[in-house]
Amino acid sequence: MTNATPVKVEAADGHQWELLATMPEHPVASLLWLPALGVAARHYQPFADALAREGVATFLHEWRGHGSSTLRAGNGSDWGYPELLQHDLPASHAAMTEGAPPIPTIIGGHSLGGQLACCLLGRSPGIADRLWLVASGAPYWRAFPRPTRYGLPLAYRFLPWLARRNGALPGRRIGFGGQEAPGVMEHWAHTALTGRYEVDGMEPAPEAGMGAIAAPVNALLFAKDWLAPESSMRFLLSKIPLPPKAVRTLDAAALGARADHFHWMKHPDVVARTLVADSGLDLTGGA
């Protein structure tokens, strides 16, 4: 197994965390990977190791409030998408690219990580040559199939209320997310109810530049993933109309494991090989 090297990162507002860097001997591309809601970076280390075997240097971002982050939501400690998009992600990207060899750069993510990767790339189009999405899609309730969609608006209103009432979302107790900041849940729920990535007071809106993204997209879905069905992925991709997109669905036979929202993380080899193969040998966007 490849050993990850922790890289200490500090945002402009003083928040600190460790970016986990996994480097192959001869990297052909570098990837900034954004986790799902409530998932610490270390849980993607098997995925980073699998990508290293394919020649991709992988840098695992840590969400504010989780894992190596110096902050925890609650007791008056709150934040939202502005802190993630304007402070933390640019700092991780800068740490990844500092002193890096001149190889193609990819940004990607799982679930919420994929959504915010799209937002970040829209805000800063030059930061990556390609976009990778795994089990990701907009949480917009109308983008889910019937009958699932009908119960979602109630849940989307309840979760931010619960986070505010408790000072943080008790995700481990309710089986959704982790100890999430109320601001994050409010901004996530706004997208889930309206279909738009926008935050009061944040200009331009997080999704404002997504329509101009030109980086090719590789997206993987899983056959039994009700949290990110193909319809929600297609809705997210509709906000990125310009680049070529390759969307593939993996079932249990292809994956060699249960094909759902999280189980692939324990069996990441097929996901890593598929992303690299579908991107082609030239990861600069010309493939």
Automatic annotation (TrEMBL):
Residue span(s) of domain Serine aminopeptidase S33: 27-166
Keywords for the protein's UniProt record, in alphabetical order: Hydrolase
Transmembrane region(s): none
Record-given protein name: Predicted alpha/beta hydrolase
Domain of life: Bacteria
Coiled coil: none
Signal peptide segment: none
